[in-house]
Amino acid sequence: MDVISEAVATTRAGRAVAVRNRYAGSWSRSFPEINGTGLHLVRRGAPWLVPEDGRPIPLGPGGIVFVPHGRPHGFRNAPHEPEASQDVEFVSCCYHLDRGRVHESLSGLPDVITMVLDDDRHPALRPLTELLCQHAADTRPGSDLALPAVVDLLLIHLLRMWHDGTGAAAGPVVADQRIARALRMVNQEPFRPWTVRQLSEVSHMSPSAFARGFTAAIGERPGAYLLRRRLDHGAHLLRRTDLPLGAIAQRLGYATEFSFAAAFRREFGIAPGRFRGRERASARDRAGSGGEVAGEV
């Protein structure tokens, strides 16, 4: 699995949320820090992006704001104090991660990235943005599955667009190819009960050398990374399937449902059964509200 696929697969463990924002007159809107990844698509008007650090940035129709690791930011109708009257519409969406962190390949990107739709170089982006706008207010059956699928595709194309524009390679995120090989195997099969010894053998390294190299490259001990990826996959299965807890535990390599539940509770702070119930209640609430925001601040 390539690094872009790995990054999107990791965010997929989170909750996809989308909202359509409409403002008139003098207005401003702040987005707090989240544990996850977000993006905004300007549909109408010319809002100003206000990063946490740096000067306000002018946007226009077709403007895209990509927030890879959830840093706080905002929008307003003028570069400083809201003054000039302006009607604006933009769609915001994000993947909220319950715990853990975004994929390590995203952590090296800037806090906020601005891009513009380019139909010649990236013709798939415009129809995807139209789909996102539709699903941001969609309450029909199937919307809970459709929205994450659209966000997945948007993230893939935005990451490709970023790599194309910067010349950044979409290859392994670590220089040591032995560690990169082990990472690819874990990300391809996060459900497999990997051990540090198995991965060190795959990497043709001693367990101690592998552990040191892995920690230096990823910033996390191998055991902690393996556990996080496995439980991220468990959260995805709880959210997206009706598999019994015992079946999920077995698929993730746990000996019993109870050992899986204990590990999941330590990682996410909630029992897996309650997590599944909360996510389904949240999905029903989003479907009932339609997720649309309009107004003047």
UniProtKB/TrEMBL annotation:
Q: Which InterPro entries match?
A: AraC_lig (IPR032783), AraC_XylS_family_regulators (IPR050204), Homeodomain-like_sf (IPR009057), HTH-like (IPR037923), HTH_AraC (IPR018060), HTH_AraC-typ_CS (IPR018062), RmlC-like_jellyroll (IPR014710)
**Keywords on this record?**
Activator, DNA-binding, Transcription, Transcription regulation
The keyword Transcription regulation is annotated on this UniProt entry: yes
User: Residue limits of the HTH araC/xylS-type domain?
Assistant: 180-278
Going by the entry's taxonomy, the superkingdom of the source organism is recorded as: Bacteria
Which interval of the chain is the signal sequence?
none
Gene Ontology MF terms: DNA-binding transcription factor activity; sequence-specific DNA binding
Write down a Pfam family by its short name: Cupin_6
Question: What protein name applies here?
Answer: AraC-like DNA-binding protein
